[in-house]
Amino acid sequence: MRNTQGLSLTYSLVEQIGQAIVAGAYDNADFPTERELGMKHGAGRTATREAVKMLVAKGLLSGRPRQGTALEPQARWNVLDPDVLRWMLERKSTLRHLSQFTEMRLGVEPAAAALAASHATGAGQREIRAAMARLKAADAGFDDPLGAEIALHAAILNATRNPFYVGLQDLVSTALRISIRFASGRQERKVALARHEALVTAILGRQADEAAQLMHAMIVDLLTLIRSAAAERRLSPGGPMPHWRTSFGPEFE
């Protein structure tokens, strides 16, 4: 039987140390030894060692023989790890990273919407309908808006029946938790609900190009909001807005 208490302590250490690394707490100092980390957080050797190994796997740390553990530069961080992404989005320069990740979503989710329209099975369509029903219930105050919208985006990724898109669920969900909270109060809820309904209608109607364009338009609107907020804070998170120009070909018709 696995030691769940030990695992909880390890994950707690990963969370605390990972957040501190991403926030720059160790940028101007030598990274602590495992013994020092254990003493600071009141953890034993095993839990501390496992936490360090997990942070090495996430690209935040490196372990070198006879040199101990060292910080890795941000360029080597595994930014596609959901924990690393969340820590980055939650720190003070959130808008820059949120803008950059939203730009990446433009290259992923419109194509996923098109694939869902083309490839969704009956079960996949039912999952999308159920998520849309949750979103409507949330608008009426009977469900969690954040959870409902994440469920819809996850259902669309699932409906692609492509393991690489399905594997992006945790990553996209992590970013959505930040971006939805950011957009709350900045976007008209009824308009957002109507656009999601139109997207679902296109997917269920096997209209691949329409689904892609609707998803693209929603993400572009979010990106515009983020960039406007960044401009107010005198940040420069990105260049020209990309446009959706992909033709999906006969296999999506």
Automatic annotation (TrEMBL):
Residue intervals of the HTH gntR-type domain: 7-74
Gene3D superfamilies referenced in this protein's UniProt entry, alphabetically: GntR ligand-binding domain-like, Winged helix-like DNA-binding domain superfamily/Winged helix DNA-binding domain
SUPFAM superfamilies recorded: GntR ligand-binding domain-like, Winged helix' DNA-binding domain
MF-aspect GO terms: DNA binding; DNA-binding transcription factor activity
Organism name: Caulobacter zeae
Entry keyword set: DNA-binding, Transcription, Transcription regulation
UniProt keyword annotation of Ribosomal protein present: no
Identification of the protein by name: FadR family transcriptional regulator
Phylogenetic classification of the source organism: Bacteria, Pseudomonadati, Pseudomonadota, Alphaproteobacteria, Caulobacterales
PANTHER family the UniProt entry points to: GNTR FAMILY REGULATORY PROTEIN, TRANSCRIPTIONAL REGULATOR, GNTR FAMILY
UniProt xrefs under Pfam families: FCD, GntR
Keyword DNA-binding: yes
